[in-house]
Each structure stands twice: as structure tokens, then as C-alpha cells.
Amino acid sequence: MKELLAVTARARAVSRADVAKLAGVSPTAVSLVLNGRGDELRLSKEIQERIRDAAEKLRYVPNSAARAMVGRRHLTVGVVTRHPPSKLRLPIFEDVMVGVVEGATQRQHTVKFLPPVVEPGSYDVFGVLRDAQVDGILVHNLDWLARQLADWRTPVVYVGLGEESRELPLDQVGAVTTDECGGMREAAKHLIDSGHTSVVMVAGATPEGEPLPRLRAFSEEFTSRGLEAPRHIDPGEWTWTPEDGYRATKEALERWPDVTALHAGNDWMAVGAMHALQESGRRIPDDVALVGFGDFPICAYLTPPLTSVRWPLHEHGVRAVSMLVAQINGSDDGVGDVVLPTELVIRESSGGASHPQE
């Protein structure tokens, strides 16, 4: 049934002929106008506008996948994220995109980065996609756009947070997420088993101000054992930088000087938290244990080496490209949900043995 639904959805894709019929012109005219070459046929401005209006009404996004397969040309993978340019160097985007480029390069495909969609209505998303001439789209932390692209019958794979993928039509869309909550439960168990009961989470919240699901999972591990829930400092602005970790940790130490363990929302925040702890005279892990999230390469080289939940961001990108190409080629492997595992890597910052860099 899943395969039938996926094939049926692809079969309903809007074609160039559909646009031509609605506009009352030839398919050739549609191609030329949507490629900015309408003047070659000496088409009037009125006819060209009618073609563009028809394309927009039908949500037609030119897709060269069939021509690419027949002509053995390379595919073009479009990428769009909700993160503004100032945040694109953060691992949550950067590491995923390295995986995307690697996955595309292995197949000799091209990657085209589209303008970030910070919020719905940021710009004419449909117009940009129509003009971009991509064969499929990878959307990063933009579940609503993935749903919209599915409605437009555009090959699409969502990459990002697992809680956002639950509302996707997974018979038409691919999704690559991770079991973030599982890794955080392991981190909580590690701290509890080490005797920590006064714990602070220095981590951002969702754009709506709610704790991330992985933070809730971390907290629930404590309360399920009858322990006090970890306290939470949100540095705000959803930036997740070392500066955020430093500032939030300073605040946490002022409010709760009895803290014996601290979880930083990601490893860059942990770098800032480590500086704040050492500046305050706290020894890591003797006075305060520290656990990060991400297991970025820097973790093994900090002093002390950082315990962290390994987040397979690079694999996110590689798997997403693989699913998108499969979806473009009509394979059932291109739709559905792929959940990658996480694991706790214990190093000296939480009192464990130091692991060599893998």
C-alpha cells in the first residue's frame, strides 16, 4: 500500500503540458517563458504573464529528473533551511551540509543552496523554487515547507528534528532524524549513577519558548527516579554559541551555586560553559561535571575532554541525499522516516575515562 500511495502521488505531478493547457499555449512556450526566454518566441507580455500565472496556480515546479535520467545528465539537489545566514556556521547546519555535499559528490550531482526561509512569508518560496531548476529539495528544519512541497508533487526530504517529522505525509516525503531523546536519557542515567542530584541544563528552547523534547527526556529521567528535575537556563535567541554557554553558565552559578552537574545544549555551548566554570574556580569534574551534545570533533581535545551525546549530523546529510535521489528515481526507498541512533560518549569532563578521538 505504501508503495502504491507513493507511486500514485508521483503520478499526479503537475506537468509542463498541464500549464500549457491552462494558459492556452504550447509546452515549448511554457519552457521558454519559465526559463526567462519568452522573447525568443516574440510572446507578448500578457501571454508571458498568463503562463507564469498558470504555473503558480498549478504549483508547477520544473523538474528535469526524467530528462536527466534519459540524457544521463547530473541531478541538481536544492537545499533550503530556516536558519539565517548568521547561523549557518553552526554544526546543526554546517555538519549536515558537509554530508549533503559528500553524498551528492559521490553520485556526481550538484548541490544548489536556496535562500533561507526564516519564517513563512520570508519571500516568494514558490517563485524561487520554480526558477531554481532543481530536481528535488532537501528542507532543513522546515516541516511546513516539506508538507507544501509534497502538495506541489516536488521530490522532497526533510532533515532535522524528529518531533517536526511526525506531521509529514511520509507516504510522499522522506525524513531523516535522530533519536535525540535516547541519547539524553543515557546522559541523565550517567549523571544519576554518578551521584548528581543538583543539575542545571544550559540550553536553548524552541522558537515558541518550550523546552526541546530531548531536554524533557533528560529531565524526566531524574523525576522518574524521584529526584528533583534539573533546572533550566535558556540563553535565548536560538543561537547555541560558546558565548551563549558562557553567559548562561555564569547566570546558573549565581542562581544555584550548589550545582554539581551541568548539561550544555550543544558542544559549542559547552566550550563556553567550561570557560565560565573554570573562571569561577570550579574544577571539572571534581566540583561540577559537564556533559555536552553533538560529540563534535573538538570534544576530545578540550581540557578536560568533554563527555557528549554523539549526534550523527554528517550522516543526516549523506542519508538525505540518498533518499532524495531514490525518490526522484521513483523508488519506494525515497519516502518514509529514517531515525538515526545517538549514543553517549563518556570522557573526563563527567568523571569518566578519556576516549581517544575516533
Account of the protein in words:
- With 358 residues, the protein is of the alpha/beta class.
- Among the domains are: 1-60, 434 Repressor (Amino-terminal Domain) (Orthogonal Bundle); 180-311 and 344-350, Rossmann fold (3-Layer(aba) Sandwich).
- The chain contains 14 helices and 12 strands.
- It has helices spanning 2-11, 16-23, 27-34, 45-58, 65-71, 91-106, 125-132, 143-151, 162-165, 180-193, 213-223, 242-255, 267-279, 313-328, and strands at 76-81, 110-113, 136-140, 156-159, 174-178, 199-202, 231-233, 261-264, 289-294, 307-310, 336-340, 343-345.
- The strands form 2 sheets. A 6-stranded parallel beta sheet has the order 2-1-3-4-5-11, with helices on both faces.
- Helix 2 (16-23) packs across helix 3 and helix 2 crosses helix 4 (45-58).
- The longest helix is centred in the first third of the chain and has 16 residues, at 91-106.
- The radius of gyration is 24 Å and the shape is elongated.
Question: Which features does this protein show?
Answer:
single chain; 358 residues; alpha/beta; 434 Repressor (Amino-terminal Domain); Rossmann fold; six-stranded parallel sheet; six-stranded mixed sheet; 12 strands; 42% helix; disordered N terminus
Helix/strand layout:
Blueprint: H1 2-11, H2 16-23, H3 27-34, H4 45-58, H5 65-71, E1 76-81, H6 91-106, E2 110-113, H7 125-132, E3 136-140, H8 143-151, E4 156-159, H9 162-165, E5 174-178, H10 180-193, E6 199-202, H11 213-223, E7 231-233, H12 242-255, E8 261-264, H13 267-279, E9 289-294, E10 307-310, H14 313-328, E11 336-340, E12 343-345
Parallel strand pairs: 1-2, 1-3, 3-4, 4-5, 5-11, 6-7, 6-8, 8-9, 9-10
Antiparallel strand pairs: 10-12
